[in-house]
Amino acid sequence: MKTLLIFALLFCFAADVFTQTPDRQFIRTDAKVIALAHVRVIDGTGSAAKEDQTIVISDGKIQSFGPSLTAKVPSNAQTLEFNGYTVLPGLVGMHNHMFFPMGGSPPMYSNMGISFPRLYLALGVTTIRTTGSVQPFADLEIKKLIDAGLMIGPKMHITAPYLEGRGSFTPVMHTLTGDDDARRMVKYWADLGATSFKAYMNISRAELRATVQEAHKRGLKVTGHLCSIGYKEAAEIGIDDLEHGLFADSEFVADKQPDQCPQRVSASLRQLDINGPAVQETIRTLVSKNVAITSTLPVFEAGGAPLAQSGIGASSALLNQRVLNVMSTDARVRYLQARARVSPEPNFVALLRKAMEFERAFVKAGGLLIAGLDPTGNGGTVAGFGDLREVELLVEAGFTPAEAIQIATLNGAKFLGEDARIGSIRAGKQADLMVVKGNPAATIADIENVEIVFKDGVGYDSEKLIQSVQGLVGIR
Ligand SMILES: [Zn+2]
Questions:
Q1: What is d(CA 475, CA 145) in angstroms, rounded to the nearest whole number?
Q2: How far apart are the CA of 157 and the centre of ligand 1, in A?
Q3: CB atoms within 10 A of CB 72
Q4: By C-alpha distance, which of 232, 224, 239, 223 is closest to 278?
Q5: Cα(299) to centroid of ligand 1, in Å?
Q6: What is the distance in A from the centroid of ligand 1 to the CA of 107?
Q7: Which residues 6+ apart lie within 8 Å of 460 measured at CB?
Q8: How far is the CA of 96 from the centre of ligand 1 (A)?
Q9: Distance (Å, rounded) from C-alpha 179 to C-alpha 163?
């Protein structure tokens, strides 16, 4: 009895603390009218950077933006001088889970409900799609708390639990028992607030077809990290998006059996001729059926340690001290051990290059490429930091900085049907912005120097948010 009372009191105490609004220490400014003066602007549309601009934010929206010389700054505005800084739209992260790998065999994954929302926002990611959930109730409730102003984090679009067939490598996913089960899952999670669905590696064509039909009835979209189904097949079934670029396309494996995830997908991809008829036909099919592709290069880079020696990226990106600092000791040790085990593997570099070439060809053909980080793999890809690395790797893939930023901002907003409100810097849109020191249009790595992130016109202090979660990634 006494114990029960203590528990009840503890719950009351926790609830009491929790219902307070988030600590104001993280808010750098929430003035009603703010002018960001003398900034360089990369507006998210892919057009070149504009020098010496002034952006006026009013009531959470972008009121105006134009050359500082002719800008009309309201007399009540709080003016922030940002000479030497660049303003970009907030990133729209399209493969941005709430969870992180916890190791073990079979592998386990847990939500980082405290650290990830803060890190996404701190590093400029103002909108995310969760793209597969292992703790859907937590994801749905975190979204509600953020929207209500009770937690700090990005705007969230919730993806239901994975739709996986028989043969999953991790017990964090339900195994579908057939197309009826797929329909049941879609209805159930859509009723609870999921707005997208993700097919996984062993789903059957019948289950994918059922998923797509049920989701489309409600105007919701389906993406997939596929293996049992090739890209052209999935496009014919009606899928809306394919995760991981070229890496998950099994259709080029010579003896691929229907509904089976084949071995040796990587080997079949490495030797592909991106300009050859087979790949070009796949690209044409995807473009004609409006299937988007999500680029998730950081998780592949982290998994292939020798990249730095091969001229892709920098070793500093894989041993970024700021990333290691937010990891728990356990997460850091697991990641560093996993990296140490990877021996130089030229084949992997060839595959990554091929995947980059495919993403360029897809965009050239008119396809909608969107971007995310995928914070899974060997644990080296962390919320927010990985999103910035994705933009750098898109530049490494051959896109201009302005194009890479467009892929990571406006393109995602378009896919979500949110481009009238977010995704680029334009008068009338929500003031979801990141302010970075330096010039990412000239040196893309400058995108990492995030200083303030605005969400609906409220400016958050990037460094304070990062400091508040030191050592927590891998714990909560
Ligand atoms: Zn993923």
A1: 20
A2: 15
A3: 11
A4: 232
A5: 9
A6: 14
A7: 26, 27, 28, 121, 122, 152, 452, 453, 454
A8: 7
A9: 11
Q: Specify the pTM.
A: 0.95
Residue 227 identity: C
Angle at 139 between CA 133 and CA 141, to 5 degrees: 155
**Cβ neighbours of residue 170 under 8 Å, at least 6 residues apart?**
106, 107, 108, 109
* Sign of the CA dihedral running 53, 55, 56, 62: positive
Condensed to tens digits (0 to 9), the pLDDT of residues 393-443 reads: 999 999 999 999 999 999 999 999 999 999 999 999 999 999 999 999 999
Q: How far apart are alpha carbons 388 and 448 in whole angstroms?
A: 6
What residue type is assigned to position 33 of the chain? V
In the predicted model, what is the mean pLDDT of residues 131-145?
Answer: 98
In the chain, the amino acid numbered 65 is F
DSSP 160: P
46-82 pLDDT per residue, tens: 999 999 999 999 999 999 999 999 999 999 999 999 9
* Dist CA 173 CA 175 (whole Å): 6
Q: What is the CA(455)–ligand 1 centre distance, in A?
A: 25
Model confidence pLDDT, tens digit, residues 435-465 = 999 999 999 999 999 999 999 999 999 999 9
Note whether 163 and 211 are within 8 A (CB): yes
Cα–Cα–Cα angle for 468, 469, 472, nearest 5°?
Answer: 155
- Residue 110 CB neighbour total at 10 angstroms: 17
Tokens of 29: 């400014």
- Residue 332 CA to ligand 1 centre (angstroms): 20
Distance 238 CA to ligand 1 centre (A): 20
DSSP-based helix, strand, coil % in the chain, nearest 5: 40, 20, 40
